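Known limitations

Files may contain more than one protein. Parsers should not assume a single record per file. Below, a two-record file is shown to illustrate correct handling: read the sequence, read the token line, then continue until end of file.
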Amino acid sequence: MIAHRGASAARPENTMAAFIHAIELGADGVEFDVQQTAEGDLVVIHDLTLDRTTDRRGLVFETPTHSVRDADTGGWFDSRFVGERVPFLAEVLRLRDIRFELELKGFTRDFAQSVIDEVLAADVLTRVEFTSSHPLLLEYVRRVVPGARIGCFAPPRPDWMPLAAHRLWSRATAEMIEADVLHFHAGLISEDLLAEVHSWGFAIHAADVADDDLARVLALDVDQLSARPELVRQ
């Protein structure tokens, strides 16, 4: 059970408060997004801009580290969390007894290498799954760290694409980057798809499980899922 952006229904997303609360709720892992500041420091924030979840404005990768860190990332959620800061990746990786689903939100080989270096320095490789919407970054991680766990997002299916073609596309993408896990939106997952993905040799992750779809997804016995931990652990 992976807590998406931490326990983001009860705490401001991608903050230490959200990650710690997810652990308290019994999550097996936390999902979060990693980007670089203007100086190349690795920080944990979802959007490419600071606008939605902080009191600052601008692109994260164009903003100096001190401005990113000085930003308040809790007040938008609730006044109780005023003063929460954008975490450094190294801070999050110091959390114990939890798995990490680390989404690469950068663009370059140097960015990917910086993330790899921090994961190895923290000695948490066995607890990390690397994901990204940029398959070439994942291909680089696989090449540099053969033992890394790689999660591949199934591409969005255009209206014009037959279901069988979309499944072939998803499988081919995962095979080309030598992924371990295929991530599908929970609404697409059925017993048939689950069996097919397992026959391809991948674990399956049900992403963004809606509260009213949770019972169905749990009954399917998927390998991993992203949902509200307070509901899954009831």
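...continuing to the second record:
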Amino acid sequence: MVKFMMQRIFDILPHAETITSRANATVVSLGKLSLAKHRAEQGLFLAEGIKLSEEAAGMEEIRYILIRSDDGTADAHTLAIARRAPRSARVLVLPTQVFEKISTENAPQGIITVLAPLSRIHRTLSAEDCDDIPVEKRILAVDSVQDPGNLGTIIRTAAAFGYERILLGHCADIYHPKTVRAAMGTLFRMPVDVCDSLTRRLLMIRKSGRRVLSAALGDNSLTLGQDPLRADDCIVIGNEGHGVRASILSASDGVIRIPMAPNTESLNAAGAAAVLMWEYYRTFG
């Protein structure tokens, strides 16, 4: 592991503030961001650790940079990330016991970036807004995936296989700490539409001439690797336990299944998404 030289924080960031009390109002507020209710009320979410903070560095949505320090020093890498924050962002230097009140990690790395929602690329669409037809060639729809780790993994995988937009219906919060962590920075670049009516959105996609295929078992289903795919297919991934909702199935052109060994029931939602997206990437690049 590369070790970075320790530097005096206030020599590099003279505008930084020190907070030493766990009862400080800002600390108490930020400490509630693990909960969806408070993320919505405050309009903030956490990106924890060096990797995520580096991915977020320089973004206009940054509101706070939190640096853990018990002696007024931090490594040069952490300070370089903090220096890229917009002037409006507050840089807070927190001793370990205060920093850990905010962090959701078991072993926090020493920097947290706090951001406002990325409304430039992440949209919440009312049912009426869902009449908008995506123009991107490669779109993934995700229905009722409730585990934030699964959702983050799907977002990360979609980015790896060239997907350009993700549609969500009844899913976990994209700003849940586990979603942000599992997406590993791709959340900051991937356009995501949170749809009040995913069913309506998929019907509009079909109306535009594209095919919608839900990953499920069913009569006359297509089999991945055997039946022909289309480059602009929109694939739907369903809930971890219950699969794709009936309303979504009715809005689809059909279903597509992944062939598996005998005596196996199903794949994890993130695993199924990865297999399907890989096959499209392998076929169409």
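Parsers that stop after the first record will miss the second one. For reference, the second record is described as follows. The domain at 6-115 is CATH 3.30.1330.30 (60s Ribosomal Protein L30; Chain: A;).
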